[in-house]
Amino acid sequence: MSTTESRKPATIDAIAKKSLSALGIDLGGTKIRAAIVRQNQMIGEPHQIKTPEGREQILAALYDLIAMFQNEAILGGIGIATAGIVDCTTGEIVGSTGNLPGWSGTKLKEVIESKFLLPVHVENDANAAAYAESRVDALKEKKCVVTVTLGTGIGGGIVIEGKLYHGAAWGAGEIGHIKIAQDNKRMCTCGLFDCWEAFGSGRGLVITAQEMLQNVSADQSPLAEKTESLTTHDIFAAADQDDFIAKKIVQRWHEHIMHGLVCIAHILNPDCYVLTGGLSDFVDFELLKEMVIDRCLPRIADAIDIRKSELAGQAGIIGAAQFALDELLTASQS
Ligand SMILES: [Zn+2]
After folding, report:
1. Helix 244-268 vs helix 285-295: angle between axes, to the nearest 10 degrees?
2. How far does the centroid of ligand 1 lie from the alpha carbon of residue 8, in Å?
3. Which domains, ranges and CATH numbers included, belong to the chain?
4. pLDDT tens digits for 91-134?
5. Ligand 1 centroid to residue 308 C-alpha, Å
6. How far, CA to CA in Å, does 42 sit from each of 24, 33, 138, 195, 312?
7. HSE on the CB side for 127, CA within 13 Å?
């Protein structure tokens, strides 16, 4: 390549960065959401459809969605956040996905690229969310940002000095499967015992409540009347109404979350945890931070901030699209 060919005026990159758009798609077990993303921001409200059952049906839904957005805007690329472990080089789903049966083995990048002739980046959904979270203005300069998704399960993503850490086999950030107890107390959805997710997730919280309500009468807590059909919503609502037992259950849930955060803190020494997912709305951040700091070595504790996501449900869409945009810009600079 000659010198003139390899040089590009800086202004072109700056202009390209501002005007490039990508479609971000967040493919979850119950819904698929998509929106146009430009410079870490979603343009307009996301379009949402129900996730159909079966691999071919999901692919057909994705084709329709992409075609719809292609009619609305000029897309530079497509980013897809999906459940499951993803090989980001090939864009293949390589790890099992309980919420999307039959999805593992799908060569998502290959099939979408060949159909739409656009560059596609496929990323694990928690990783995509973590990437977007770490790029908000307040966190851009941080050394290590760990995003923790608290929902039916626990997901995570690790961003070190602005780069998402994927690990040796694309499995980094599977923090929900850190072991936080002994003696095979609870089985996790992964088939192993005593994972963080088995305690700190919504499912874990309900089991904790059922255990703690075993010898409790309905007079002591109305929750005792419906232990079999208990939901996380019931527990938080009761705690809100000063139900003493419910408050103890929620306190125990905070302890469970603390155990995982403390474990990660001593390995990564992060300067920030971002908590997201439906259950993050019920976290008492002051209490949790106090618990974590209390249990960490002082130097590690001093550095830790724990904050709630500013991007709410948009992080997966933004992060996936931003990966696609970053790849386009890197390609244009080389
Ligand atoms: Zn597990």
Report:
1. 50
2. 49
3. 3-131+314-333 (3.30.420.40), 141-309 (3.30.420.40)
4. 999 987 677 888 999 999 999 999 999 999 999 999 999 999 99
5. 24
6. 9, 12, 18, 34, 12
7. 27
233 in Cβ contact with 250 (< 8 Å): no
CA 173 to ligand 1 centroid distance, Å: 13
Distance (Å, whole) CA 159 – CA 315: 14
pLDDT exceeds cutoff 50 at 42: yes
Quote the tokens at residue 300: 């590690």
Tell me the whole-structure pTM to 2 decimals: 0.91
Q: Output the pLDDT for position 1.
A: 45
> What does the block give as tokens for 281?
């709305």
Centre of ligand 1 from the C-alpha of residue 19, in Å? 42
Going from the Cα of 175 to the center of ligand 1, the distance in angstroms, rounded, reads 9
- Residue 160 sits at the vertex; the CA angle it makes with 157 and 164, to the nearest 5 degrees, is 50
Residue type at 180 in one-letter notation: I
Single-letter amino acid code for the residue at 319: G
d(CA 159, CA 270): 9
Distance 26 CA to ligand 1 centre (A): 23
Residue spans of alpha helices (H) in the chain: 3-6, 10-19, 55-72, 108-116, 125-134, 197-200, 202-212, 232-240, 244-268, 285-295, 298-303, 315-333
Ligand 1 centroid to Cα of residue 30, in Å, is 21
Q: How far is ligand 1, taken at its centre, from the CA of residue 105, in Å?
A: 21
